[in-house]
Fold these 4 entries.
Entry 1:
Amino acid sequence: MFELNPLNLPDAQMQHVLMLVVAGVLGFIIGYVSRQNVISQLESELTSVGHAVDDCQRARLVPDASNEETIILNRIRARAGEVNFTRIGLASVDEADDLKDIVGIGPFLERKLHAIDIYTFRQIANFNQDDIEKVNDIIEFFPGRIERDRWVSQAKELAKKK
């Protein structure tokens, strides 16, 4: 009567090869999409962990707040949000330059600048007049001293040498 064996069709082998190719392409596409999802999840986790590490490095609060320097640094650190970092740029502790190379910045003043997340010559070089006044107020420094000591021009020169 009727013989319906699909393997007896003249293009049966071609159909099998075509189905294998389609299955391989679909498997590749599904694997690629899922791999991209995993990569994006891991990158977002890495970013959040990086931010957490930066926060830990920034929040170096000394538990013994009895000495005057620690009290001053904590008071200054509390005002760090007032600085316009979108304009002057962000930096981390890992990127920190030796700010004491700028004439007029000593060890304690450098710690004050670090307390408000200013770590690099590039950040100081990007100061405008408003930034100078704001930073001067936050770090409780002598009015006009940043301009007299020419921090911005010194920082530009030091950033170029770096």
Note: The CA atoms of residues 7 and 16 lie 10 Å apart.
Entry 2:
Amino acid sequence: MGLISLDGVRDKNVMQLKKLNTALFPVRYNDKYYADALSSGEFTKLAYYSDICVGSIACRLEKKEGGAIRVYIMTLGVLAPYRGLGIGTKLLTHVLDLSAKQNISEIYLHVQTNNDDAIGFYKKFGFEITDTIQNYYTNITPPDCYVLSKVIAQVHPKK
């Protein structure tokens, strides 16, 4: 287990994220995705297993009315040979811990309705299906997605 490390995404290694996304997802991401990922700071991470880049989580920070910030997980993925080693867990736990410390009220994401593995994974962490969006995806079947959300309990530092 000790072989997993996380690293931030910066201009100099954003190509790693692009390569992973090409391998992992049926969707091609645009420049805005990468701009959002870079501007989310610590909320976007690459995961390394024995120094090989094998996974990532990319988030977008969204301001809600009243100043609350919520986190949208744009992508979370681990290359197939490296699944089941705790890498996805480490990536998601990083973002959950960071959110609790930074006064973030909610985390949400979209998952294709037939992606039982992903749905089961997020449910283990307390995410719930809060909505279904028809025809969310173009060019992939099924085109529908679930919205999974988790309300974050705030960590209040001791006075």
Note: The chain has one domain: 4-151.
Entry 3:
Amino acid sequence: MSSTLAPRAAPFARALRDAVEASGLGLENIAARLRERDVEVSIATLSYWQSGNRVPGRKSSQVVVAHLESVLGLPPRSLRVLVPAPRPRGPIREESGALVPLFAEREAVRRIAERVQQPSSGRFLNRISQHDVVRLDAAHRIESVRTRTVARADADGLTTLGVTQFFEDRTAGTPQLTVHSGAEIVERHMDAGHRVLGTSLRFARPLDRGDTVVLDYEMTSNGPGPRDTSYDASCARPIREYVVEVHFPTSHLPVWVEAYGRPNLGHGEQWRHRISVDNLGHAHSVVLDCAPGTTGIAWSHATPVVKS
């Protein structure tokens, strides 16, 4: 389940070791909790990963890492973004006459995430509710995403939170983050060439276990927004309430809109259903007791082609 890789494994190994130590769980307990989720990984493999002798390699190992984040109480993707990218080898894609390796953006995201995330603290937030408001412009590009999160500290002394954002659309600008309440920006790291922004947020006061915080921040772009046909959020733990709104210009309404959910392994079945757009161009989805996985809204401005 792993590939042998040492020097590049250091950030992932350190983050995993720190998270294991902070959790107070031994590797046997961690492996047992993973088995409860129908995820099989040996204690030896976990030991190799935290020592840096090996790193997750195949897709199945990435699934294990996603569940590890949940078991250890880490934010979604906080470990996955630190997994070293595979050695440069096919496939590649051709865009604007340039051959771009598929691993390039992933490596850039990992580098930025390393600089803003604080895996050694072992004190992370557990989201209770989240409300995302997505606004599209007339060119079908995402103009802004405003997020309001209510979260609870799982340990004492939480002071900072790292947020990493990435636009996959190569015609978009670089993400920009504005904090409206709940924290202040203390550090930014940007890779404009790969459209990645990492931001370190500091809370007004250290949070102790059980303390709650309300975060309100907004993502925009320093250029064109990303052209997309969906928006979703991922979570490693259940969220009591997840709300996502998409605001379309009334002059450019979509042909159809649907809400969907892709729970993690062992947390339910995938689902999707059509939702309506009101007279103001707004569509929304409310999911209570949102299961670990990915939940969001998809849309299309193209009329489906009916084959005769």
Note: The first strand starts at residue 2 and ends at 4.
Entry 4:
Amino acid sequence: MSDSIIIIPTYNEIENIERIIRKVFSYEKEFHLLIVDDNSPDGTAKKVAELQEEYPARLHLLNRPKKDGLGNAYKAGFDWSLDQQYDYIFEMDADFSHNPDDLIRLYDACAQNDVHLSIGSRYCKGGKVKNWPLMRILMSYFASIYVRMILNIGIKDTTAGFKCYSREALEKVNYDVIPFKGYAFQICMKYGVRKHNLGIVEVPITFVDRQRGTSKMSTGIFKEALVGVWKMKKMKL
């Protein structure tokens, strides 16, 4: 039994899903995977189910009936992972924008230190972004500054989606009350960990824009994050 589970939410990731699964399972450190699929019409969940025959103890699948947002996918994944008694619960995208080679660095940052959340950070010293247009880089970078100013969160990459939580962090943060479905959910989870005075560290990564499949980013998701930070200040996380 591994102490670590990686949650990957998917919607139409058939071009990436087998590659990311095999890559994660290629490492000496044993990670388990939980794919949370929102009824992808392209057959993503079917491919995962096929691969479960090859990796019956390590690969898990949650099928959800419809596309219902990143935040709700992670809530379902957190509940499942805590029920299965994993000590370290990761978030990662399927499209290789998060380099699986960095998983062990995020794991070590938590497991070898008094840290309950390690963040794969684009904007701390040593972090980078590749293949994004300049306007998107600036939008993301200044959005993080905006969030830090409002929440006083002390994290440079506030919208980062590549993370490792300790079990204790997820048991303490009341994530069920978080209403957000997009990047605002990622911000709010970090804010919740900070409010509980748990250790957080940013680990520099190189973020690479996806090469296959379609981005799920939208104007609505961006607006939700900009407005949502004001609501977070009043939440009982």
Note: The first strand starts at residue 4 and ends at 10.
